[in-house]
Amino acid sequence: MAGGFAAGVINTLAGGGSLITVGLLVFLGLPGTLANGTNRIGVLVQNLTSAWRFRAEGVPGLRAAAVVAATPGRLVVAGPRGVQAVALP
Question: In angstroms, what is the C-alpha Rg of the chain?
């Protein structure tokens, strides 16, 4: 419980809490791939909650930060020579 709480705080403030949660899940006996997939669900919920609260508190520049953060992934996946061009010949 304490590990999950610590990871949530770290993910919300700076990211990297997965280093704690994935390690704990593997230590508890889950295979690495299942631990990683399970961890992604928690990360999604934490990110949605953080964005909602930041917006409610009026944190400036939230939309600009989201655009800047999403652009590299968009270019890799949907770009002219992105993942689709390589994965789907």
Answer: 16
Number of domains in the chain: 2
Q: How far apart are CA 40 and CA 45, in angstroms?
A: 9
pTM above 0.85, yes or no: no
Dmax (CA) of the chain:
47
At 58, list the tokens. Answer: 């009026």
Question: pLDDT tens-digit profile of 32-41?
Answer: 899 888 888 8
> Same domain, yes or no, for 34 and 76?
no
Residues spanned by the domain of 4: 1-58
> What residue type is assigned to position 37 of the chain?
G
Same domain, 19 and 32: yes
pLDDT tens-digit profile of 13-61?
777 778 888 888 899 999 989 988 888 888 788 778 888 888 888 888 8
